[in-house]
UniProtKB/TrEMBL annotation:
<protein>
    <submittedName>
        <fullName>mRNA interferase RelE</fullName>
        <ecNumber>3.1.-.-</ecNumber>
    </submittedName>
</protein>
<keyword id="KW-0378">Hydrolase</keyword>
<dbReference type="GO" id="GO:0016787">
    <property type="term" value="F:hydrolase activity"/>
</dbReference>
């Protein structure tokens, strides 16, 4: 399994709303976002027969 790092840039208005959220909601959102990104990345690589590897 590969480990990937992503950065997320917030619109200033959205960042203010994000900061208002509780830690539980933030954690759930981060887990879901990671799952979606991982699923898209792995499906992209498996569709062309490549493997998810770090250069």
């Amino acid at each position: 399994m590969c480990e990937l790092m992503y950065g997320l840039e917030f619109d200033e208005r959205v960042l203010k709303e994000w900061q208002k959220l509780g830690d539980t909601i933030k954690t759930q959102f981060k887990k879901r976002l990671a799952k979606v990104l991982y699923t898209r990345l792995t499906s992209k690589y498996t569709s062309v027969g490549a493997c998810c590897t770090r250069p």
